[in-house]
């Protein structure tokens, strides 16, 4: 049995764009719930809105899956992995230009941020605002997760070397070949488990260190493990992971369980709904429940055959929303702050549904401007440089292009 060519194994999965949109809309809903004061209210609506930060788990698991998949494929087929310089360059041109524009606008335009100090500028422009208490500025509070994700981007080439273990031996593909899935999952669990234990022991701060990468290694690791399993399945080496394709054939069952896990997360087991610190146990419970939600949301789209559900996700609207979803993530807090400023609303008041619709509409307008004026030009530029000089680098381009989702 011959191994599939990279284009077949690493083909882009456009339906995942719709999953990214779901994550972005969930984050918007969470922030709207907080701004309108509903998150802290003793109502079912408030409970659900307060846990829509589950969208962050969706982003992190997706990033682990999409970015690690080319590395998993290179190891499974004995090819060269993506070049580190090119990978980092493409990540930088994908993320930083639009982010820097948002930082400049928020620090200059929002009156709550004026005058911004030199430290504010340096921390936000370098994505280091999460490493001290109380450094997130208005319109930029959501960027804590981007700072955490960028740390993962920087570490991924090293993790790709260290985690999967030895390369497959030559010969016909069999399920006995190592794919590194269990090793990755175990390592991620140990990192996050140890980090949470240190918070529980009082060594680390629940108010600060819950924003750092080790807290979410389990989420990124789950995405990486799913990538390893998918590559193993597509290259004929992953018989043990066939159940993931079976789950992919049952999207409604997966999403029902995911909804149940989120329902459990709306109860007090995951801690307070406001800005009060949870206990380490409550934080750990939230991490696990959110992980279940994210994985079961993604698996039916990333695994299994083409289904009618995937066809709905892989629509023109879904693809476009996926393209602008990063801009929606960046700009919706600015829009939300603007609604309250222009309307003269007191804090923690307002209709959550109306505010959500206004925020999404305004956010999509700015997201579209961001995509067409900033993101797409820089992505094209990032894709043209540095030039490819060999066949192996050309193959790496296929892998990194997939990772640019």
Automatic annotation (TrEMBL):
Pfam families: Acyl_transf_3
Residues annotated as transmembrane: 54-72, 92-110, 144-163, 184-204, 216-233, 253-271, 283-303, 324-342, 354-374
InterPro entries referenced in this protein's UniProt entry, alphabetically: Acyl_transf_3_dom, Acyltransferase_3
Gene Ontology MF terms in the entry: acyltransferase activity
The keyword Transferase is annotated on this UniProt entry: yes
UniProtKB keywords: Acyltransferase, Membrane, Transferase, Transmembrane, Transmembrane helix
Signal peptide residue numbers: none
Acyltransferase domain sequence ranges: 14-371
Protein name: Acyltransferase
